[in-house]
Write a structure and sequence with these properties.
Length: about 80
């Protein structure tokens, strides 16, 4: 999958899902062993992006009635 251009996080998630399914099949004795048990999962880094003050201001200005408390702060910015 990696050589086909699929990202490492997608490959990791796919392997987790397949491993879960094989573990389930193993529990019900549909498989003699879990073939995913020894598969190395690719490592990936998670990029975290924090909201800037401008992002928060835009969100506050577009808040709906349920988040009215945020909207009051819009006039302060």
């Amino acid at each position: 999958m990696l050589s086909a251009g699929v990202g490492p996080r997608t490959v990791h998630n796919s392997l987790l899902m397949l491993s879960f399914l094989c573990k389930h099949a193993r529990r019900f004795k549909w498989l003699p062993v879990n073939p995913c048990a020894e598969v190395r999962k690719p490592k990936f880094r998670v990029k975290v992006r924090a909201f800037t003050a401008a992002d928060v201001a835009i969100l506050a200005c577009h808040a709906d009635d349920a988040t009215r408390a945020l909207r009051r702060r819009c006039s302060l910015l």
